[in-house]
Structure of o-succinylbenzoate synthase:
Amino acid sequence: MVCFCACATASAKAGGEISPLPGFSLETLDEAQAALLAWASAWRDGEEGALPTPPSAAFGASCALAELCGELPQAADYRAAPLCAGDPDELFARLSLMPGEKVAKVKVGLYEAVRDGMVVNLLLEAIPDLTLRLDANRAWTPLKAQQFAKYVDPHYRSRIAFLEEPCKNRDDSRAFAQTNGYRYRLGMRACARRTLPLPPSRGCGRW
């Protein structure tokens, strides 16, 4: 289920989508909608308050404000990154047909860490302009994460955009990323538990 936030001034209008993820988001759609309505009422009355507390509502409201203030780019690339969850040959075939920058996502942690490292290394070696996004979904112990890293050529690490939650423990994930030079990313469940900072005033007019 989705609700939509619409904002407008005398010269522009914009919107943002609010869609809590069942099983991931802490808030329900009803809770997000209630928070959004309270925020929208205050915004309409000219109040410069914080974004709604529920992350999904804050995301939708911030997107609407960014569009309203002209802060979003006018052009974008809406292609989805192909996913590899097992057979790299299927990914090779899809990437060969992809124009422009080649980006793919690989689910690691489904098989042995050594195999994952070898597959990632093979993909990066075979396709020089490929960038990978890796998602381990907290599947590894620190030892298995190190086994993975051992089989990826250090020269290719700059072409790994991020490694999402490699270890079961967040501190282990952070330590692994810092030690091995990987960009570490939190998953959706972890992000939903973080407190959003208060946004700066955007200086937009209201009606």
